[in-house]
Each structure stands twice: as structure tokens, then as C-alpha cells.
Amino acid sequence: MLRMKNKSGNLLEKALNLSPNARAAIAHCLIQSLEEPSDLNHEKAWLKIAKKRWEEIERGEAQTVKWGAIKNSIVKKYAKPRVSR
After folding, report:
1. Where are the domains positioned within the chain?
2. Cα–Cα–Cα angle for 65, 75, 70, nearest 5°?
3. Which of 9, 18, 24, 70 satisfies CB 3.0 to 4.6 Å to 4 for a cystine?
4. How many Cα atoms within 13 Å fall on the side-chain side of residue 36?
């Protein structure tokens, strides 16, 4: 593990003694604090798009595709051909 100086080392030690859920919450907050404001704007934009698409699905205006069909399409498109030996 990283060696940290006084205050940050003490803080890390205390955090590591917390429950897994508490550590996860702290990790999430710390990571989120590192994000650039533009990252947050992109996240808001994606959420807006996702909400719009969900509403279209709910109103029956959008056609859905099952994951199996999407996966098969991806595999077919990107799978490398097997070499016979």
C-alpha cells in the first residue's frame, strides 16, 4: 500500500477500518471530486438523452432490441476468424 504522511496516513488507516459500504461511499465521493466540471456536464447530457429515450420506449415510439441479438451482431462483426492448424 502507498506510504502516506501523517494526516493522510491516519485518515487512510481510519477509512480502511470502516465497513465496505462506508469505504465504497468515500471512494465514490473522492473519485467524483476529481472529475472535471466538463465531465459532469457530459454526464448530465447523457442522463438527458437516456431519459428522453426511456420516455420514447414508454410511449411505444421506439423499437427495442433484445441483448442477445445485439451481442450476436457484435460478435459476428468483430470476432476474429479462427485459424485452422
Report:
1. 1-34, 37-79
2. 5
3. 9
4. 3
